[in-house]
Amino acid sequence: MEKIEVKEKELREDGAYVFHHPPKFLWEKGVLPKMSWTDYTLYVHVPFCRDICTFCTFERKKLEKGSLSQFMNSVIKEIDIVLQKSDFSKSKPRAVYLGGGTASLLSVSDLEILINKIKTSFNIGDEIEFTLECEPGTKQAADFKKLVKIGVNRVSIGFQAFQNEILKSMNRMHTIEQSIKMFGDARDAGIENMHIDLMFGLPGQVMSDWKFSIDQAIILAPTHFSLYPLIVFESELLDRKMTNKPELEMPPSEVIHQMREYAQQQLALHGYEQYSLTEYCKKGYECKYVISNWNGSDYLGFGPAAYSRNKNYLWENHVLHHLYNSDVANGNLPFNKMFKMNTSDICIRDIAMGICLLDVPLKPILNKVGVLDPIVKQRLLELEREGHIILSDQSIKLRKTSQRYATHVMKQIIGDS
User: Coiled coil where (predicted)?
Assistant: First the structure.
């Protein structure tokens, strides 16, 4: 098929992928029907941090005295409320992820209470992928030995960079030495499935910094990597900081592209397979939780600002903690807004977000919606003519050369670029 040339300057190269569709401004107050949960993943959002990182846009707040005890009381009650209002008789979760914020700020005793509550409530065995997201410096060797005994079998550590000056510029509360120590402590405790987060395109970061971070991380031999391009959202903390400090410049887009390419090459050389725009793993270590976020699966979220999906329903818990705590205390589901998708919404969402996994199988989507939405089909044909995707009756594949333009591709699919 003839390829249509598109000027690169017109294509979005940033990492602001489509994280939600339909867009949040269309979500409304409403009443959720009784849900039946079978094949799904489970997420708990622990929305507290020791300090606020300049790059972060997730729901989070600085840790205050009493915050964690209030959170524990509320999230345990929320689990009980959900159990009462939904059907879990055929519950078969694929993975559990404790994230944030900073999930590792919870004490080991609180984590034991929470994990035992989850395992007994949702029919979870020891074989299920169970991830704890950790900030370096918040857990020690003895803690990981206890965590293994209560069911944690995967640890995600937010290294972000191997340069202390870069970590400091991002308001990270840890050093690279603490990152390396935490990694070793967790692995020595018997946790084989180890994950490392790294970021590229950071203000002040040069190519040699990125190469060093990648090379040193590979030496540690984790089973899984996430490599995130920095996203600077208007009026967020980092945007304000860069406005006040002009010397904090992001690398040029071409350098950011070279950073991505270097990581892809080096990780491939060392046996890591790329299975999403940001994820790389040793064979067989794909993160089930990550995949479920992008492939149209159901997922159940607990905690302030947590998201959930069940079939054609989407909803979000209250972001404001006092509203979340109040609803739970009164025995109500603490969700803020919801959206009931029609078949067109599902088709667009599952294809656009599925692009993040590089290869979108069409059969699961067609099983939900019947036939491909003709408007979506036309948009896909246009993207194929532009040379961004490979379209067949079985799947939609994002070309490797267009990974840098994934945001453009996603936005084109939803008709919002």
Answer: none
**Do 274 and 363 belong together in one domain?**
no
E strand or H helix that includes residue 309: strand 307-310
C-alpha distances in Å from residue 254, one per residue of 170, 201, 382 = 22, 10, 25
Range of the domain at 232: 36-294
Element (H, E) at 155: strand 154-160
Instruction: Enter the tokens of residue 153.
Output: 């079998």
The CATH number linked to 360 is: 1.10.10.920
Give the pairing of strands 389-391 and 359-361. unpaired
Instruction: Say how many C-beta atoms besides its own lie within 10 A of residue 128's C-beta.
Output: 19
User: How many Cβ atoms sit within 10 Å of the Cβ of residue 45?
Assistant: 24
| pLDDT tens readout for residues 49-68 | 876 555 555 555 666 778 89
Q: How is residue 305 annotated by DSSP?
A: T
pLDDT in tens, 210-251: 999 999 999 999 999 999 998 865 555 555 455 556 556 888
